[in-house]
Amino acid sequence: MINKQLNQITVEDLNNLIQNAIPERKTIEYKRSLPENSDSAKKEFLADISSFANASGGDMIFGLEENNGVPTSLSGLTIDDTDAEILKLENIIRDGIEPRVTAAVQTINLPNDKVIFIFRTNKSWLGPHRVIYKGHDKFYSRNSAGKYPLDTIELRTAFNLSQTLVDKMLKFRVDRITKLYANETPIPSFPEGPKVVLHIIPFESFSSNINLDLSTIMQDARKLPPMFSHNWTPKINFEGVVTYSNSEKSYVQMYRNGIVEAVDNGMLDPVQPGRHEIPGQGYEKRVIASLRTYLQTLRDFGINPPFAIFLTLTGIKGYKMGISVRPALDYGHVVDRDILQLPEKIIESFNIRSEDILRSLFDLVWNCCGFEKSPNFDEQGNFIST
Fold it and tell me: What is the phi-psi region of residue 135: left when phi exceeds 0, alpha when psi lies from -120 to 50, beta otherwise?
């Protein structure tokens, strides 16, 4: 792949491919034109996209002439409506590959009023993906010579790898919640008591050699604010970098492999002796904002989706939902368990709102307190902040 974020690629970068005679390989392919409207051309396009997802990811560049796989010139594409063309191709990808694959698209304008299309497909950890367009039922991967169909042994390996990754993530979550429930945290003086815990686990954290530059994280510690704090201090520890509030009731641990663990102890403090409530709107608002921030931080550090999102509340047996009607304890019922481990949410793209990721999880917390759903969203799914 071109060693840049997709939106930062320029005409100069494309000319460098030509000047340096960078050949097609496992992670890059050149196409003179976009796929035609025939079924065979669409199947070929889908085979290319799925092969990148099933291998190491890669860039497919349309509008670039090549000779025996070596780029020769920027011919460009003549497109009347680029947005409509992108939408058409995205729909082909959406409907023609299973499980779905997300390919990001960047257009680069040339001086001759033509355009270059770059489709970037990241390595997928949710595969293997197969082409299902009009009965074409095949799995593809890539090597230095290009794409090829997977054989039975390779398919079995791919499916086992996918399940192993899921098992590793679930085990990590259980291990961390067990330790947090026992108040084993990276902050020695972290107070005991109920906690709100948010985990963001990149799939690639368990299957590639991610080793984040700790000095860079320390310099950008402002990108790791604890969930319910406005002032915090960063420090390097064995796991990576941790930022913690001055009150030491909230922290964020950024692991070297890209995992984010955000824990807060203050939000569930009793509002007064004997009154244990989950702040119905306050904690939802902060978790949404925090998830949005952490996902942007992962993006800035070059860590790609998919991600598993886990939300857990610990030490909440006997809590009720805090609502505007008073006395709140006369409404709903108490939580009947000490640890509320909500199901994971898997996201495959940065282009999804934090509130859309978390809404169904918030609904489950309200269910535990005897309510149908969170009242903090309108009919369009927008968070209502009062």
Answer: left
